[in-house]
Amino acid sequence: EAQVTQNPRYLITVTGKKLTVTCSQNMNHEYMSWYRQDPGLGLRQIYYSMNVEVTDKGDVPEGYKVSRKEKRNFPLILESPSPNQTSLYFCASSQGWRETQYFGPGTRLLVL
Amino acid sequence: SQQGEEDPQALSIQEGENATMNCSYKTSINNLQWYRQNSGRGLVHLILIRSNEREKHSGRLRVTLDTSKKSSSLLITASRAADTASYFCATDDQGGKLIFGQGTELSVKP
Q: Nearest 5°: phi and psi at B27?
């Protein structure tokens, strides 16, 4: 089944404790991206990747890192999480960046 | 950066009625997409319309695009309770980013 998976689905952590949210797609898509969704603000793009080893900042990259060592994986790293990073995070992939995005199920993060 | 802005922010209708949502954006685009999100879940793609298209249909959905006004509308005909969700438009910039609007919350009452 074609899908985008994210793990974990729910995470509670404390300020400053490094964490990684994994994202994997099995559709051989070139484009992958991360979004955060906050009430009243819609989805905002954090980082995106056009292909392996190519990543670029979205609109809200501060406090996040990503890597794209393999085509299928695009982990989101929070080196030192802060409470303002409490949010709902989505990973998405597509064949081309202007094309249909396939979204993962989301990761709810609470930073205390 | 450009932004897709949906209007209205919330819409409540009765089953069987039509629902119309609008999206405006600021700069030129190649594609405009509409997505649906059921409460807290991942977004699901509905329709993609290219800048050289004016109208597109998919089942009960009709999307129009007016590039001169930098706006698009999504019409859901004969709405059902199952259509209750948030609807987002997304536009592309020239450099690889996708910009989503804040969404329209649609409530369809049985």
A: -125, 175
Residue B24 sits at the chain A interface (C-beta within 8 Å) = no
Which CATH number covers residue B89?
2.60.40.10
Report the pLDDT value the prediction gives residue B3, as an integer from 0 to 100.
58
Query: By CA distance, what is A97's nearest residue in B?
Result: B96
Shortest CA gap B83–chain A (Å)? 19
Total number of domains in chain B: 1
Cβ–Cβ gap B31/A92 under 8 Å: no
Residue A45 with chain B: CB contacts under 8 Å = 97-100
The first and second tokens of residue A106, run together, are 């989301």
pLDDT at A41: 86
Q: What is the pLDDT of residue B67?
A: 94
For the segment A72-107, what is each residue's pLDDT rounded down to a tens digit? 999 999 999 999 999 999 999 999 888 999 999 999
Spatial distance between the Cα atoms of B21 and B108, rounded to a whole number of angstroms? 14
Q: How many CA atoms lie within 13 A of A10 on its CB side?
A: 2
Domain that holds residue B82: 5-109
